[in-house]
Design a protein that fits this description.
The structure holds 2 protein chains of 2 kinds. Chain A is α/β, with parallel strands linked by helices. Chain A is built from 10 helices and 9 strands. In chain B, helix 3 crosses helix 11, helix 4 packs across helix 13 and helix 10 crosses helix 11. The two termini of chain B are 19 Å apart. The chains are: A alpha/beta, B alpha/beta. Strand 2 of chain A pairs antiparallel with strand 10 of chain B.
């Protein structure tokens, strides 16, 4: 492409282990650290906020546990729990979509890939929206879009702050074009939140890709990312297949997005709650 | 999960089809569309017809943005560059005259021969392309020019530089800006409406599709390789997610279908342009009567209410 340079800055990074391309092959036990091979009991990992005490690798965090990590104990009240996806296309691939939804709900105990509600973080009231990658890859369909939009609207009512933690493979294919429409839906909601004087703090967890990156997650007043998180529009496999180029080792990772100016800070998980509390105080003290 | 809870869940999910459908918002205006969708019967657009649309939408003889510009606009001045980094040839933008009024136009541009295809990057834009679109939207807003967009892309370019330059953020911000305009906007999917790359310039007061265009969240091949683990199942995937204009209209995602000449737009660029021009003029005339704040309010409400869900 004329005038197009790759813009690739060659720096060595220490997050090669987070290369998501490698994670699709042979899967290790979920509690085995892909960074250093250490293995942990579940309670050990939970105690360390699912960060490897040996090498600092950030394991994925499910939405309920994420809320436990961030919100003041007992402060979270879920909202819009009753919403479920319909199947507007009667979508059927190898299995019907309704069956995939039922299976996901049984496996995760969640109604869809996002949990939203009221909470406080270190005494600062806010709205929380946490995505869960284990529910159909954190994909965004009508329910994710609607719950997120309502969370924005509720935050807007008291000119408050919505903290979102995204973890998503993108739009939910099984809802077809309506899944794509969740992009503008959430974009409208963030705009309305801003118009009302509210704010969005967007935290990008591994992975935040596709439709979520191309909508609300990129519109935060402040955008934070977890170390080693893949936060890109296109995933590394698609990019490698399309361009046939060798990808930089840190392709699409939080650290590279910090360098290229797409996130404000890479925040290690133990620092996330205090960082959000600071930001909530800053945003809360507007004259 | 206990067996009892599991049974309860299965039971509830089994009832889903019988549950009253709720639209994304409290708007009752949308209910009518929903009704149509509910009443959708199996005999509508067949799998073969859907695949035919996919093939026609990608037909290399199909008119592209500049083919229409040449035939529809009385004057055309092309704008170049995003005022920051580069000019992305996968998106063209400019000012033109349509039926006596000045409009701003933004469209994906594909190339027809090998050299042009490469130059236009197959209509797959970099973030710079969306930034060019945004600065053209701002220009239109400043001067009260209606904005027309032509959507024709397999998707936003999935490349290393595109990611480094902020592809996701550019698509998000382009939507945010377009949803804020008070100037009238009409988007037409003239070929492939490929996912994020399409929606970036398609959040308009009126969203139209040409008869044989497709609009989808993923390409049939992409969907097939993920869900069927076999890109060769593209036809099956297309039947499953239904990217054709008739289904998009039923789902309330688009506001109208623009007819094409017999056999498809590629059969006669001139005839296709006449039909497209008529539709554009009619919609712009209608929108000209709506107060600008009201335009924006309705547009935002329309996209806010997209989606189909149930309450359990």
């Amino acid at each position: 492409m004329p005038g197009m340079s790759s813009g690739h800055i060659d720096v060595s990074i220490e997050h090669k282990r987070a290369d998501p391309a490698q994670q699709d092959g042979e899967r290790e036990h979920p509690n085995t650290c892909p960074g250093c091979g250490s293995h942990y009991r579940d309670d050990e990992l939970a105690q360390h906020l699912r960060v490897c005490p040996h090498c600092g690798h950030h394991f994925p965090v499910r939405a309920p546990e994420r809320i436990e990590q961030l919100a003041d104990h007992g402060s979270f009240e879920e909202e819009d729990a009753e919403l479920r996806s319909a199947d507007p296309l009667d979508f059927f691939d190898l299995k019907p979509y309704t069956e995939r939804l039922a299976q996901a709900e049984m496996d995760t105990g969640l109604g869809d890939a996002i949990l939203t509600g009221k909470a406080s973080i270190d005494g600062n009231a806010c709205r929380l929206a946490a995505m869960d990658f284990s529910f159909l890859g954190g994909s965004m369909g009508s329910v994710v879009g609607e719950r997120f939009a309502r969370a924005c609207e509720r935050a807007a009512e008291d000119q408050g702050v919505l903290v979102s933690i995204s973890a998503s493979g993108g739009a939910r294919m099984q809802e077809g074009i309506l899944a794509l429409m969740q992009l503008p839906k959430t974009v409208v909601a963030v705009g309305d939140l801003h118009d009302a004087g509210g704010a969005l703090l967007s935290v990008l967890a591994h992975p935040t890709t596709g439709g979520v990156t191309a909508s609300f997650a990129s519109l935060g007043d402040v955008i934070l990312a977890e170390p080693g998180a893949l936060t890109s529009f296109a995933g590394p496999r698609v990019v490698a297949q399309t361009t046939r180029e060798k990808l930089p080792d840190d392709f699409g990772l939080a650290e590279s997005n910090l360098r290229f100016g797409h996130v404000d800070a890479v925040v290690p998980r133990p620092e996330l709650r205090p960082t959000l509390a600071r930001l909530l105080r800053l945003f809360g003290a507007r004259g | 999960m206990t067996q009892e809870a599991e049974l309860g869940l299965r039971d509830r999910l089994a009832q889903l089809s019988g549950v009253k459908l709720l639209r994304g918002t409290k708007l009752s205006a949308e209910l009518e569309r929903l009704q149509r969708q509910l009443e959708r019967l199996r005999e509508d657009t067949s799998d073969e017809e859907i695949w035919r649309s996919v093939e026609l939408a990608r037909n290399e003889k199909r008119p592209y943005t500049l083919d229409y510009v040449e035939r529809i606009l009385d004057d055309w001045f092309e704008l170049h560059g995003d005022r920051g980094r580069m000019d992305d040839p996968a998106i063209v933008a400019g000012l033109g005259s349509l039926d006596g009024r000045t409009i701003a136009l933004v469209g994906h541009q594909k190339g027809r021969d090998i050299a042009q295809r490469g130059y236009r990057n197959f209509g797959m834009a970099y973030p710079e392309g969306y930034r060019k679109a945004m600065r053209t939207m701002e220009l239109a807003e400043r001067h009260g020019f209606p904005l027309v967009t032509f959507v024709d892309t397999p998707g936003a370019y999935p490349g290393i530089a595109a990611e480094q330059h902020g592809q996701g953020g550019a698509i998000a911000r382009s939507q945010a800006l377009m949803l804020r305009l008070v100037t009238p906007t009409v988007a037409v999917v003239i070929g492939e409406g490929g996912s994020g790359g399409a929606i970036a310039i398609a959040v308009a007061d009126r969203v139209l599709m040409q008869e044989n265009a497709i609009y989808s969240v993923i390409s049939p091949e992409g969907c097939a390789s993920i869900l069927w683990r076999d890109a060769a199942q593209a036809k099956k995937a297309a039947s499953a997610f239904k990217p054709d204009a008739a289904h998009c209209l039923e789902l309330g995602v688009i506001d109208g279908i623009v007819p094409e000449p017999e056999g498809g737009a590629h059969e006669s660029h001139d005839a296709a342009a006449v039909l497209l021009r008529e539709a554009l003029v009619a919609h712009l005339d209608e929108l000209a009567d709506v107060p600008s704040d009201e335009l924006r309010r309705r547009r935002r409400e329309k996209f806010r209410s997209m989606g189909v869900l149930v309450s359990v």
